[in-house]
User: What shape does this take?
Amino acid sequence: MPAAHAAGIFIQYHRDAMPLLAVDNLTVSFPTADGTVRAVRGLSFSVEAGKTLGVVGESGSGKSVSALTMLGLNPGADITGSAVFNGKELLTMSQHELRKIRGAEIAMIFQDPLSSLHPHFRVGWQIAEAIRAHTSASKQDAMSQAVELLRLVNIPQPERRVEAYPHEMSGGMRQRVMIAMALALKPKLLIADEPTTALDATVQAQLMELLIQMQNELGMAMIIITHDLGVIASVADEVLVMYAGRAAERADARTIFFSPHHPYTRGLLGSVPSATGVVGSRLTPIVGSPPSLISVPSGCGFHPRCPFAMETCIDDQPDLIPIAAGPNHTSACWLPPDMTGVGIAMDTARQRYASTHRGARSAKLPGVIAAVEGAAVYA
Amino acid sequence: MTRFLIRRIVFGLITLWVIITLVFVLYYARPGVDPARELAGRAVTPALLENINKEYGFNLPVIVQYWNYLKRLVPIPGQFNLGTSNVNRLPVTTIIAQAVPIDISLAVGSAILWMVLGISVGVLAARRPRSLWDRGATVFVLTGVSMPTFILGLLLLYVLYYLLTIHGIAIFPKPGSWTPFTQNPLEWAHDLLLPWITLALITAATYSRLTRSSLLETLGEDYIRTARAKGLSERRVVYRHGLRSSLTPIVTQFGIDLATVLGGAIITESIFGLPGLGLTVVQAIEVENLPVVIGIVLVASFFVVAANIVVDALYAVLDPRVRVS
Assistant: This one.
């Protein structure tokens, strides 16, 4: 059994040997007048070519910062660690080299397409500009490519629409323009930072569909950053849950949804409205709000809000350890590795385990008090 | 857009009418003042007053005088009439027509200088906030804003004209030199160089401050992040995407400043002996030459009103979002 286990790890290692993007122990901090903001505190993940990674977490969990850092778009940040893309280290690359990768090999789309498009330039011009930044295409060539790209992302009357200004389009159209611009140079990796957050629910679904369709056609890898687990449920091959600048849990989407280990993942699932949920069941918010990244809590960053916090959680920071529930499933939590899943029975088991490991300090934590009083028992 | 412009022009005309009326009240209809006596000079005789009253209609009811005054200002050839100078009996329009080319020359040259200087210093400061460049720009701005024109002008004259000339390096012409552009463009520029520099240094400070704050704000926008994420060069991001959006406040300020100089740069013209509207109005005030003062006030306010309309029209050119509303 130990031999098989070792072999499994070896095979695993081999398969991951050349991921498209491998981020290792990334830390990002910003010196400010109030103190150092530790936005990312030791984050590791990888994305394989053609696959989709969903990155989930609340605002301020370091999702966007990590993405922007890889592209060198965080001026003034202190960065350590490594991010190897296609065999090249991004974090030590000169701005000049990075510029060639940005937009061409790694493209990015952002949350609010109205503020992300330049208000004074026509959308076709903005797409053509991206093409001309990386190729020697003539103005006319780039413009006709822009028309084709708009057609590709299903914008009606693309010949007319290239002449439009962003404010003349709807939110969904604008985000399609952003996608067209990002796809212009057939990137190997597309980072979508909250791509549908600013849009209507119906438009959200259409855009996610479009992204999947584009991924299938172009064979690119995607990182979809969102605070909404629902957005990536059907899209992501793997999901990375982030909390306070660190990875809380990582697994394939199915495992994350049905056998989560980390109480934070469990909490996120409890606060997502479900179409198949029990009638009359209530959403359960996570107690409190994300911590200040200037003074991150000791030990496990989630312990002040965690209903299952124990004495050790206050003192010791857990590392990602393998969890049995799925292949490649890892979680950074002191609860036993076999305590995975949702449902009242499992929550009761977690609570029972935690209560035997509690001390004077952990009994007074807000999350624990709420849970013990019954206010935060997951529905 | 056309409706917007028409509305702006109507508003401009109303503004002009208010100014014209205020000027009328100030100069002709002030209570307790007899304009005929003011015109008559020192040796007043009842016969002279009678003549003046007849010629100017000062003995008519105020409302009739106001109506006649307004009629004179309707811009129709043959009817438009700003009166005649009390000093040399020349039509005020002729006096203004002689002075305006000087102000246009002053404004064009100094505006080019202050825009280039102000915007480039502002961009440098914005690209490297808190750097040595930025601090240097701050010193430049403070000096420009706090330096009175008459000190800077005199200083330039003293150093660049007087000191250089007495040491045999006569690069700059003596004050009072003026060559019309149509006569000799090179000589024209040469004669105006010092006044241009004076006006430009004083005014550029405002523009570098405006450019810096406006550009810094723009560079924090999401679409600048998009431009960088597209892989554009930093130069293109700053100048094409950043500066483009920062132009609006600069254009506003430019309209006002240009109009102000066009309406007469009183101190600069006085120091350098340039007989533009500024110097002319100062001389007219000294001898209470009311028709000339009124004429120049009206012309200067016309410039300001017109500049504001042009600026509003420019907004629409600069920002497509203005065109729809």
Summary: The CA atoms of residues 256 and 304 of chain B lie 6 Å apart. Chain B has a mean pLDDT of 87. Chain B has two domains: 2-73, 92-324.
